[in-house]
Amino acid sequence: MPLELQTALIAAGVALLTASLGGYFSLQQMRREQGKWLTELKTTYAVELYKARLAAYPHLQEMIGQLSSQAQEPLTLAHAHHIAQQVNQWIYSSGGLVAETSTRAAILGLRDACATWNEGSPPQEILEWRNAALFLLRRDLDVFGLESPDALKDRTSLLAKIQTEISEIAR
Question: What is the pLDDT of residues 17-28, one digit of tens each?
Answer without folding.
Answer: 898 888 898 999
